[in-house]
Every structure is written in C-alpha cells, then in structure tokens.
Amino acid sequence: TAIFFAIGAVTGTVLSFQLGLLWPSFMEWAGPIIGLAFSIEGFAFFTEAIFLGIYLYGWRKVSPRAHLAAGGIVAVSGVVSGVVVVMANGWMNTPRGFTIMDGTPINIDPIAALLNPSGLLQAPHMILAAFVSVGFAVAGIHAWLLLRHPGNSFHQAALKIALTVGGISAILQPVSGDLLAKRVAEFQPLKLAVFEGQVRTEHGAAFRLGGVWNSEKEEFDYILEIPYVLSLMLYLDPNAEVKGIQSFAKENWPPIGIVRTAFQIMVLIGFIMMCFALWAAWLVFKTRNVFQCKAFLKSMVLASPLGFIATEMGWVATEVGRQPWVVVGYLKTAEAVTPMPGLTVPLVFFGALYVFLACIVIWLMVRHISATPKQFEMIPHPLSNKPV
Ligand code: HEM
C-alpha cells in the first residue's frame, strides 16, 4: 500500500501539472463544471494519507480495532477518489450540468455534472476493474510462492483473501460491462457501433467476433457473425435496430481498428477471468480448498497480469473511442490541446520519469515479495494478548 500510495502521489502531481500545461483550453472550459470532482478527490486523498500514516506506523500505538479501522478508511477513501475521478471522465462522454451561451458554458450545476449518466456506470466498472486486477495479481504471486513452498499458511491465507476479492469482482465485472455497453448504445451510439463492429444500421444486428478493419473498403475483414445476438443483448429484442458506423459523419469516426481491438481484448479477458473465478469456486465446493490443485495454481500465476491488461484496454476503448471529441458534442481534442510548439522535450522527460517510477515499483515489489515469511507465525498484538 505504501509503495503504491507514494507512486500515486508523485504521478498524480505530474498529472495535475499536465492538465494545466497541455490542456489549457479544456481546463478553462471544463474546470468550473467538473472542479467539484477534483475537490472531493483532494479531501479523499488527504484522508487516505492521514489514516495510512496511522495504519503504517500505529501498530504499536493503537488498539487492533483502531488499526483495522484505519486500514478500512484507507480503502474507502481510495475508492472515493477513484469514483469521483471516473465520474469526471464520464462527464466527458455525456456532458451535463450547464447550458451554452455564445460558446461558453453558463448555469453550471456541478452536482448534475458529476452525476452524469456515463459516470454512474463507469465508476463501478472501474472500481471492479481495480479489485479484479489487484486480486488476481496478488493471487498469482501467492500461487507462485505456494508452488515453491507448499503448505505455507501465510501464502494460503493471502491467496484465499485475494481470490475472494478478485473472484467476486470477476463475476460481477461482465454484468457491470453489459449495463455500461447498453448505456454507451443509448448516449454514444457511434462508439458502440465501433466496439461491436457494426458497420451498417440494421434491424436484428449480429454479434460479431474478431475482424480486421479495412479502411479502404470501410468494412471489417475476417469477422465472425452470430445473427440477432447484438440486438438481443442490447435491447432484449432480436429485431431491434442498431445504428452502424456509416450512419455517422466520417469526420467524427474514432480510429476504428484500435478501438475495436482494445474493446475485444478487454471483454475476452473479462470472460477468461470469470472462468477462473468459477473454477476456484468449483474447487472449493468439491475439495474445500484450491491449494492442492497444481494446475489451478500454475494457471493463476499466468493469469496474474490479465486484469491490468484489461484495464489498459478498457481505457483505450473509452478514450480513443471518444475521439475526435474531448467533451462529446462540445469540444474537440484538437481545440483543447495546447498550441505551444516544442512538446517533444516534456513528452520525453515525463515518459522517462514514468518509466523510472515503474522500474522503482517493480524493484520494490520484488524486494517486498522475497521478504515474505517462509513460515507464518501468529504474532500477538503489543496492546492485546490475543494473536492477530
Ligand atoms: C467482461 C466483459 C466486459 C464488458 C462487456 C465491458 C464493457 C465495457 C464498456 C462498454 C466500456 C466503455 C465505457 C465507455 O466508453 O463509456 C468499458 C470500459 C472499461 N472497462 Fe470494461 N468490460 C468488460 C470487462 C472488463 C474487465 C475485465 C476490465 C478490467 C479488469 C475492464 C476495465 C474497463 C475499464 C478500466 C474501462 C474504462 C473506464 C470505465 O469506463 O470504467 N472491463 N468496458
């Protein structure tokens, strides 16, 4: 927690500078409308910092209950930060809470902006993504350590907790994704058409798998169709109409190949992770534990990065899928970005900074993992006689 908090604070500071320096028109236009989200995030961040201090340094100074509560508050404030920031992102997809006069937003209602239709479903989807990614990554690490030290009760306990968090989230994630896709169909039909490879508007639209975008023919090559299923999934009606890419002005098309590929990878990984969760549940039901099944532990090691890959793909689908807009229908990305020349230098500098920070995280995590106990012993809490 401490490692990721520290890295989060550094990268977050860079991001806030970047918003002002690289996106001045966006901040001028959108700042008063979505500023509330960033203020709440600030409060959540400070709460997290205070209670993280108690959690990390208070083990000998506060009671076990207070220590546990401090950990709980760290988790809740982290979730609150994530929720408000993703709701601000949702506002860029479905802008609400203002009217336009002479090209300027007036009558600003920050609450209506925050509670925009996309954000309300994007936020739980992202929180589940965080839980599923971290749950699977931690489960993979402990599965690997259990293969090397079978019977180690520390790794068994850790694997159980990580699998419970990751597994429950992996089962809920496709449900949340399905609701989100229906919302995208309602408010961003072009994005949905790109996600689903729907080129022409049709009744009884097929569900499509695979496909390579051919920009000359404006068609997908090598695509597999399952008739009526997309209409059924989106509107519970096999003959419902689904709008196609060609029904929208070409100047508003996002980069189709990238968006569709990212979306498909995310959904595929979502289903693979759901299968892992069901496999774990079946093993627990049949044998009461997952530790004896070497095939499961080995597969878990391989599955550990999947959540992070899906999360990256999800963001590519959402953000590249919104192009050419930064705020749909109001502000284009080209109008929002800084007109300053010579941006290569800060790009290289910040890129190098992020690579450096990533290396530090990997190094610290490897050190942390290799320091985990070979044998787990119950340590009594200094202020209580009971083992914790
Ligand atoms: C299993 C089926 C899944 C479906 C049907 C699905 C659906 C969607 C949809 C429709 C969006 C676009 C939202 C928008 O542009 O407004 C999205 C975004 C996203 N997805 Fe998924 N998703 C699935 C699985 C996953 C998984 C497994 C992860 C990560 C572990 C994930 C992470 C994300 C992220 C980070 C975003 C961008 C942020 C957000 O909109 O919340 N998704 N997903």
Output the strand order for the largest sheet: 1-2
Number of helices: 13
Largest sheet: 2 strands, antiparallel
Strand share of the residues?
Answer: 5-15%
Terminal CA distance: 19 Å
Number of β-strand runs = 8
Keywords:
mainly alpha, two-stranded antiparallel ribbon, single chain, two-stranded antiparallel sheet, 388 residues, binds protoporphyrin IX containing FE, 67% helix, 13 helices
Structure commentary:
Strand 7 and strand 8 (331-332) form a beta hairpin. The model has no long low-confidence stretch (mean pLDDT 93). It is built from 13 helices and eight strands. The chain has a domain at 1-115 and 341-388. The longest helix is centred in the middle third of the chain and has 35 residues, at 153-187. 31% of the residues are buried. It has 388 residues and is mainly alpha-helical. It is 67% helix and 8% strand. It has a two-stranded antiparallel ribbon with strand order 1-2. Protoporphyrin IX containing FE binds at residues 86, 93, 118, 122, 125-126, 129, 132-133, 173-174, 177-178, 180-181, 184, 191, 266-267, 269-271, 273, 307, 310-311, 314-315, 317-318, 321.
Give me a quick take on this structure.
The protein is mainly alpha-helical.
Chain-wise SSE layout:
Elements: H1 2-22, H2 24-57, H3 64-93, E1 99-101, E2 104-106, H4 110-114, H5 117-148, H6 153-187, H7 189-196, E3 202-203, E4 207-214, E5 219-226, H8 229-235, E6 241-242, H9 256-287, H10 294-303, H11 306-321, E7 325-327, E8 331-332, H12 333-336, H13 344-370
Antiparallel strand pairs: 1-2, 3-6, 4-5, 7-8
Helix pairs in contact: 1-2, 1-13, 2-3, 3-5, 5-6, 5-10, 5-11, 6-7, 6-9, 9-11
Protoporphyrin IX containing FE binds at residues 86, 93, 118, 122, 125-126, 129, 132-133, 173-174, 177-178, 180-181, 184, 191, 266-267, 269-271, 273, 307, 310-311, 314-315, 317-318, 321.
